[in-house]
Amino acid sequence: ESVPVSKIPANNESLRLLDLGSSPIHPEAAKNFLFCGTKIIRARRPQDGTDEEAVALAIVARTGFSTTKGALVRSMLFPKPSGFKFYKDAFRYITVMAAVAGIVPPALPATLTIGTNFALSRLKIKKIFCISPQRVNVGGKIDVVCFDKTGTLTEDGLDVLGVRIVQRPTMRYYCGRLVAGKAEQNVRFSELLSTSSALLPGAAYERDPTVDYGAHKAALYAMASCHSLRNVDGDLVGDPLDLKMFEFTNWTFTEGSLDSLSQQYDEFKFQGYSYAKPPTGSEFEPNDFGESDIINLVQLNIIKSFEFVSQLRRASVVVSQAGNEYASIYVKGAPECMRDICRPNSFPADYEELLGFYTHRGFRVIACATKKISYDRTSLQRMERKTAECDLEVIGFIVFENKLKVATTETIETLEQAGIRQIMCTGDNILTAISVARECSLIDRTAHCFVPHAVEGVVDHGHIGSDADRFQPLSETLMLV
Description:
The protein has helices at about 10-15, 70-75, 85-100, 105-125, 135-140, 150-155, 195-200, 215-225, 240-250, 340, 350-360, 375-380, 385-390, 410-415, 430-440, 465-470, and strands spanning about 145-150, 160-165, 170-175, 175-180, 190, 230, 235, 250-255, 275, 285, 295, 300-310, 315-320, 325-335, 365-375, 395-400, 420-425, 450-455, 460, 470-475, 475-480. The protein is of the alpha+beta class. The protein has a 9-stranded antiparallel beta sheet with strand order 5-2-16-15-14-13-12-9-8. A two-stranded parallel ribbon has the order 1-17. Strand 13 and strand 14 form a beta hairpin. It is elongated.
């Protein structure tokens, strides 16, 4: 695994996705598989027990060269014949010489390997080793190199630049008085909030009475709970992006039962669930109606989580707080996928404009959304992903700063001088990819880039006939960036 991930027991659904005859593992079933060479850093039993270490029963599905790692080793030890045209022509030449002259110069076959040996010695000086000399000639014919972006061209770590919150006009109470927002005010984004204290001030007197902090609170709660982090020996491990995002909140994350601070709510039994808590001094949330005698305990209990899926480009989590009669769902993912799962009226008018502003400058942008549902432990445990990730409300953008590696530009320029084409492969926003490509000289800074956008619609060709003849799907449009 490239990053620490959690594995869970297999079920009937994952077993149905298992195909022993296929080399790749289905993405949904990968979370139930331990791959050869993976280091297990922790094992936990689902039930309490201190008499012995946690034990998991595993069934071996593949061994030896049938495993993913074994197939890689086999391809290195026994490379497939390259079929390099140079060697074929050379042996044809030797055969013709032997047939015509009846003799082959003894030094001729040796001369065919002199260049390869010199190349191997020069590569060895550069700490590059090759177990198949024929591959050296293949390497000399390479004309395209493909790079991943995150972690290859750019640094592994991401720093949170700040959060932009979707602000809506509202009617709210402050210190017992009704404060009215401007009715003509449109839904818009807030300024960039670069710290967690700026995102959600801890004390009531620090909060702007004209601002509804409901979206601010939802954004902070999403960053604190919607992640795949695990606590191993007191350290958080997991996806680097999730780790940076959680560190921004200054919260703490615990896997296990609740502490004694929440035992006053006996009707809610959250033992066994992971939970996130704010830093010391912010354990209690001021009441939104300004009633100083009513305070809410802040502790996010993670009831159910849906891991990040590359096809969906998002992850989600179901969260509940002790004392609340409702549960909250928080979703984070690519801004483009939010159009499919969020209510259209929750998007600010400048959603695409602000997204383009940051992606054009090479920042990575993650969108957040939320909704509230009635609390029912049984139904929440059985909730399907498509039910959780629908009819949501956009709450804002999380902006990450990803810097280029020091050697990236120099490497790209070296490949360019060698006449080798460079390609960047990434799942990030296309405008972010273009910005990074320009920064590392992958493309010219002044070059025009055309981004295709598929548009749903029909085109009338202006002739009489059936509807099937007259109307055809509109193909693509181009946007200049």
